[in-house]
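Moderator note: this is an archived Q&A kept for reference. The question asked for a predicted structure of one protein chain; the sequence and the answer are reproduced below.
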Amino acid sequence: MQKRALGRTGLSIAPIVFGGNVFGWTADEKTSFELLDRFFDAGFNTIDTADVYSAWVDGHEGGESEKVIGKWLKQGKGRREDAVIVTKVGFDNNGRKTGLSAKWIAEAVEGSLKRLGTDYIDLYLAHKPDADTPIGETLEAFARLKDQGKVRAIGCSNYEADELRASLEAAERSGLPRFDVLQPEYNLYTRERFEGPLRDLCMTEEIGVISYYALAAGFLTGKYRSKADTEGSARSYRVGDYLDTRGLAILGALDQVAAETGTSPATIAIAWVAAKSGITAPIASATSLRQLESLIAAGNLDLTQAQITRLDEAGA
């Protein structure tokens, strides 16, 4: 499988990233191990998680996903040096503000390293902007982690174009490492948050992009075609937002291209993101081996330009 350079980080990743938000939540430990084994056996190499996953579940405190990944690495099927581990810091946890202060970053990274059972993180991301902490303080904290060998590369998630540009300018002024990776929301339905100034900036500055919500919380799998279909779903609070005229038009286009390629709407939705300019690799999750096959197929599928255009127009 052809790996892709992740911006200027020196890391190379396969065209699909496994979204580890499901580990310890909708995928138990045994299932998570099976999914990771299959994913890596298929030639993929990158897992995305965060210190806050899955604090939104009753009885969880955050870090459950990192713990599962750490146990998987320890049991020996996946070699640490073959895996690119991405985790994040700075998202509020159960109403408790964490942020991106130097003090919190220094504390949080130790927790992530312990849960992951590793002495380094390949890519460490600021999970969201922190208006209460100067960007210089955050960058200095990340620089120390790189100097200590605890982090190989740094980046940010959920930054708008002006916020990302300000961080790049601050890094240049201070001679500090810059954010070399961005993690934005991007899929066939939600395009305006990335396409335009943000994508242009990333491409100009050679910033790697690993986008999340490739399947729009499961909507783009085609499983949800009406409000009734969302009842009982763990993600029903998000899926319902997509059930409008445009969303149904996108599902129609996905159905057509899936039929042409002998795949599934999920495979097509992920492959579309992977094919877009400025994207290094989309993040997608699976909670069963059957769902995982859709991710694997997407990483090995080349859509035609006509198919990409049809999908573009449906989601315009």
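Archived answer notes: The chain has eleven helices and ten strands.
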